Amino acid sequence: MPTIVDVQTWVLRAEVPTPFFFAQPGIVTHRSSMVIAITTDDGRIGYGEALCNGHQPADIAAATVDSSLKPLLIGRDPLHTGVLFEECYNRTKDFGMKGAVVGAISAIDIALWDLKGQILGRPVHTLLGGAFRSTLAPYATGFYRVEGGAYPELLAEEAQRHLDAGFTAMKVKIGFGIDSDLRSITAVREAVGDGVRILADANHAYNAGTARRLVRELDDLDVYWLEEPISPEDVDGYRSLVDMGPKLLIAAGENEFSRHGFWPWATTRAVDILQPDLAAAGGFTGVQQIQTLALSAGLALNPHVWGTAIGLVAAIHFLATIPPVPISRAGQEPMLEYDQSSHPFRQHLVEELPTMANGRVMVPDRPGLGITVDRSVLDRFDQKSPVR
Ligand code: CA
């Protein structure tokens, strides 16, 4: 029986070359991530990541692992992913349930599945139940803003760059006032033409009342999905937008966590698309549970991705296993969120960065996550305080 003998965390942080902003207050000056390595007695190492959004420090997830969950993992069998997930959730329930604590559990779960794949000699997507597809359609996430930038002209230029790179879908940041948002979407549509799928992401900039006008106006501009129009606490508000019956799809979930958090979203059909992040909402084990809720409600599940290459590859494995909703010639296929924004260490962290060819991203077939992490990059960007 393989046994866990060590759990190590890194608090990665690096200044971005060009600070940027989106609908939420503040300027993003750094990208951060909590990376974990779980080592077994036979020398194998599994890697995982806890997502850090724009202003989220990686220290919270690292402290959760180091102080609370590491003692629970040492001496255990890494193949027992389900048992360890439930025990980690239960151990932190009274101070966790959401946010960076579930992010820490997600990082552990991703690392355990990486180990499971290495031990059994199979890619994670096979162990999850098998892949429905060997390549994924990506969409470009970008359109973040820089201070003093000329908008919407810069958005049109960026849209052209994504088009030239082979993207046929892209997600535009909105949430700067509805009139401004409409000018942004119109400018991008004019730049890319009719054949490109445009998504809009408001990062919960509005309340349900003001979002009603946004939904109506965007519906006239052929937007495919509207992401996080309102605050994630307002599940009823989301449902009121779906009940308007727009053509566009309402999506949310990057700020929700675990099967318990997603329960009201699924059971009340508050959105059309649930967007848990593998590196935040519960790892493979947790998001597979959320997927069961989504499929039971007839909803699509399309994971959010904004992390390093580790979170990206984890999402790719999971995306491969999501069935079309429903399985039919017209079933809704998941898309890979492919972050094109500034990130100093996202690419350098692993040797095998997923690449796009002919507008598609290949699903890796190597055992585990199928990545080789460059430890020197982890150490270079590590900002963890020395143990006292
Ligand atoms: Ca988003």
Describe this structure as you would to a colleague.
- Helices cover 37% and strands 19% of the residues.
- The chain has 388 residues and is of the alpha/beta class.
- The strands form 3 sheets. The protein has an 8-stranded parallel beta sheet with strand order 11-10-9-8-7-6-5-12. Strands 1-2-3 form a 3-stranded antiparallel beta sheet, sandwiched between helices.
- α3 crosses α10 and α9 packs parallel to α10.
- The protein starts with a strand and ends in a 7-residue tail after the last helix.
- The chain has 2 domains: 128 residues, Enolase-like, domain 1 (2-Layer Sandwich), CATH 3.30.390; 237 residues, Alpha-Beta Barrel (TIM Barrel).
- The structure holds calcium ion.
Describe what is shown at a glance.
With 388 residues, this protein is an alpha/beta fold. The protein has twelve helices and 14 strands.
Find the count of extended strands (DSSP E, 2+ residues). Answer: 14
Task: Note the gap between the termini.
Answer: 34 Å
Shape: globular
The CATH class of the largest domain, by name, is Alpha Beta
The number of domains is: 2
Q: Major sheet, described briefly?
A: 8 strands, parallel
Unreliable residue runs: none
* Bound molecule kinds, no repeats: calcium ion
Radius of gyration: 20 Å
Alpha-beta classification: alpha/beta
